[in-house]
Design goal:
This protein has eleven helices and 13 strands. The chain is an alpha/beta fold. The strands form four sheets. The chain has a five-stranded mixed sheet, sandwiched between helices. About 50% of the residues are buried.
Length: about 350
């Protein structure tokens, strides 16, 4: 059996934050942001009212309804996020509570930008073995609660937005349809080049041994608990070596796509729609150029939503489908690269 996408949905907060709004908080310009990322605006949650799991619940309700199911038909949840509601427990059980489902298993996936690829790969295996029938797979993020909205943090903060996307995976006996293959990869050698260090259990001194790490704060501040010293020295924000990440992304993205093509016996020319992780429009444009994809065969919406990490692929996939850009029988490729470093791809016959 293959696993097919029986229902799909996405949800983003109402609040639109434009580049111009960010220029009031940091030394930047809309032109600078667009030139480097392609982003024009993004969505932010309403603080203290919306969370990662509440966004996920809204997207999940749409996906479940479109699958012709009720919440009680769902028998497993896979939740991908790097911005959970709590340090623990994971957001999967909170989503379960929002949906009023009791007793089913919930699995949280922490592979950041590739979270949705990893999540559907895991769910695909559960479907293939017959262990579960209707699996809810979600990617959701609330980045706006943890960004540095100063000039110091602009290289990271202008990129990210909030949102959620969800699919319901279901078994199909049509071996030509559904998820045809997935591939998953990681290389922890480069972990510190895109990471959120504090609070954490590393104790700080460990970071001193990571060669080439351009960490802007004193590395001896690390610890499991948030301290006043971390706050005073502002060592509580994400760190990204942008050029280093870009360099690896433009190498690993194409490799994952080519591996997926080889696994199903096709070429890039056979792909009807590529849905890349919405990391940076410049990365996507380089991938598009490498494979010779026409504009209509690559879907981008980073301009409107920014980088929503684990949510970006399901949001883009759903939006493309809603616009009629993905049709029955189309070969759709999903691909992602991100923190870890992790990367991977999935090939789906719609």
């Amino acid at each position: 059996m293959n696993a097919k996408i029986a229902g799909i949905g996405f949800f983003v907060p109402e609040r639109i934050v434009t580049n111009e709004e960010l220029t009031k908080l940091m030394d930047t310009t809309s032109e600078w942001i667009v030139e480097r990322t392609g982003i024009e605006e993004r969505r932010y949650v309403e603080k203290h009212k919306e969370t990662t799991s509440t966004l996920a619940a809204e997207a999940a309700k749409i996906a479940i309804e479109r699958a012709g199911l009720t919440t009680q038909d769902i028998d497993f949840i896979v939740f991908a996020t790097l911005s959970p509601d709590y340090y623990f427990p994971g957001s999967g059980v909170l989503l379960q509570r929002h949906l009023g489902i009791k007793g089913i298993g919930c699995l949280d996936v922490r592979t950041q930008c590739t979270g949705f690829i990893y999540a559907i790969s895991v769910a695909d295996q559960y479907i293939k073995t017959g262990m579960y029938k209707n699996i809810l797979v979600v990617g959701a993020e609330v980045h706006s609660a943890g960004l540095d909205f100063t000039t110091r943090g602009r290289n990271v903060s202008v990129i990210f937005g909030d949102g959620a996307g969800a699919v319901v995976l279901q078994a199909t006996e049509d071996e030509t349809k559904g998820i045809l293959t997935t591939n998953l990869h990681a290389d922890g050698e480069y972990a510190e080049h895109l990471a959120f260090f504090n609070p954490g259990t590393h104790g700080g001194a460990f970071l001193k041994d990571q060669g080439g790490l351009d960490y802007p704060n004193e590395p001896d501040l690390g610890g499991m608990h948030l301290t006043q010293e971390m706050l005073d020295k502002e060592a509580i924000y994400p760190h990204m070596n942008g050029r280093y990440v870009f360099k690896h992304a433009v190498e690993k993205f194409p490799a994952a796509i080519e591996e997926a093509c080889e696994a199903v016996g096709c070429t890039a020319d056979d792909i009807n729609m590529l849905i890349p992780h919405q990391a940076n429009l410049r990365i996507t444009q380089m991938i598009q150029l490498k494979f010779g994809f026409e504009d209509e065969r690559v879907y981008n919406n980073i301009q409107k939503y920014g980088n929503t990490t684990a949510a970006s692929i399901p949001i883009a996939l759903c939006e493309a489908w809603e616009k009629g850009l993905i049709k029955d029988g189309d070969l759709v490729c999903l691909a992602a690269f991100g923190s870890g470093f992790t990367w991977g791809a999935a090939m789906i016959r719609w």
